[in-house]
Write a structure and sequence with these properties.
Elements: H1 2-29, E1 49-50, H2 54-64, H3 76-79, E2 94-95, E3 101-102, E4 118-120, E5 124-129, E6 132-137, E7 145-151, E8 156-163, E9 166-174, E10 178-181, E11 184-191, E12 198-206, E13 214-222, E14 224-231, E15 234-243, E16 246-251, E17 254-258, E18 263-266, E19 269-272, E20 278-280, E21 288-297, E22 306-312, E23 317-320, E24 324-330, E25 337-345, E26 348-357
Parallel strand pairs: 20-22
Antiparallel strand pairs: 1-20, 2-3, 4-5, 5-6, 6-7, 8-9, 9-12, 10-11, 12-13, 13-18, 14-15, 15-21, 16-17, 18-19, 21-22, 23-24, 24-25, 25-26
């Protein structure tokens, strides 16, 4: 009996293999090739909703935003946050190729690097000063000299990362219109605008030749630069752009209300974030902002950046572990703070939890 079962199982197995081969051949000859599409990082945030279209997003702001018009929010310029190279215990010192110990950026979590205005690899110093990044040979001291200087005229550099032969420069640019007095056309009276007129930039350089850095790619997104971290090959950064209704008068008694959505650009190719890619929680708030998380591989220039956009309150704080990004949003009334936990794995984002604390 057992021998008969084994024989039948063998015959059924061979038949199944032949049927699979025949079906695959038939599909190929008919021009049908099965497609397997991996989910986009943003599609993994299941507990939040996305908007169906632009009208739904705009109507949501009309109904749920208690503050209509341009709101106050926290951004890089509001919080500052310059970090310093600080002495660390001897057991935490890194070693250059020559075996010389040197201190690194003072970080909160081992393995999670933080951007700074000064970086070193034990042999070179990378210094952000004004609108320039200067690369110096620092060791051995008798050979110390300036090797190169990268100048920026299209953005204001804020912080840098260094990983092997890659340099990442993060910065921002504001495009505020200027108002002049007609009597003094050369003297601006004031600037006006919003952070929707602000872009956050990341420029990646190949610094294998420290004397001649080569620009590899430029990425930008709408909003003000908020904060960043680097884990392994990936730079994770956050930009914040207020989400509010902008009233435009077309004719007397004819107005329209619009919302400026975040825009992204890679090497000059720009696209606007679709409302269907913007996540939100169906609750009222004092005001909202588009908080965009971006993952950028600084060693693989072929891999496209990935992102996730949340329409939440104004982000005011960030903490990053090896696996998660935590952002905090203070509420103007009630004395509570909302906390969002975004799980990260390479270039994948998943918004997994949200809660409040006093």
């Amino acid at each position: 009996m057992q021998n008969e079962i084994k024989k039948r199982a063998g015959r059924y197995g061979i038949a199944a293999i032949l049927f699979g081969v025949l079906l695959g051949s038939l599909c190929y000859n008919l021009g049908y090739i099965p497609q397997f599409q991996l989910p986009q990082p943003s599609s993994l945030s299941s507990f939040l909703k996305t908007f169906s279209n632009y009208t739904e997003l705009r109507d949501f702001l009309v109904t749920n935003s208690k503050t209509q018009g341009y709101p106050f929010y926290y951004g890089y310029g509001d919080l500052g946050g310059v970090k310093i190279l600080s002495p660390v215990p001897s057991n935490a010192l890194s070693e250059a190729g020559s075996g010389t110990a040197y201190s690194t950026t003072n970080i909160q979590v081992a393995g999670v690097d933080e951007a700074d205005i000064v970086k070193t690899d034990g042999e070179h110093i990378y210094l952000l000063t004004g609108s320039n990044v200067v690369i110096l040979r620092a060791y051995p001291p008798e050979q110390a000299k300036v090797l190169s200087k990268i100048s920026f005229s299209d953005m204001c550099p804020a912080e840098i990362f260094v990983s092997g032969d890659r340099l990442a420069v993060l910065g921002y640019k504001s495009n505020y219109p200027v108002v002049y007095d007609y009597r003094f056309p050369s003297t601006p009276l004031y600037y006006y605008g919003s952070s929707s007129d602000t872009e956050t930039f990341v420029k990646i350089y190949d610094i294998s030749d420290r004397e001649s850095p080569e620009l590899l790619r430029t990425f930008s997104t709408g909003g003000s630069y908020f904060d960043s971290r680097m884990i392994g090959n990936y730079v994770y950064f956050v930009a914040s752009q207020p989400a509010y209704l902008n009233t435009i008068t077309l004719f007397p008694n004819v107005t329209i209300e619009t919302v400026s959505l975040p825009k992204m650009s890679l090497n000059g190719h720009t696209k606007e974030v679709s409302p269907s890619d913007i996540y939100y929680s169906n609750i009222s708030d004092n005001y909202y902002s588009f908080t965009t998380f971006v993952a950028l591989n600084i060693h693989n220039t072929v891999e496209e950046p990935t992102y996730m956009s949340l329409m939440i309150g104004g982000t005011s704080g960030m903490y990053v572990s090896l696996n998660n990004i935590y952002v905090t949003i203070p509420e103007s009334y009630g004395g509570e703070t909302s906390i969002y936990r975004i799980h990260i794995r390479d270039n994948n984002f998943t918004c997994e939890a949200q809660g409040k604390v006093p």
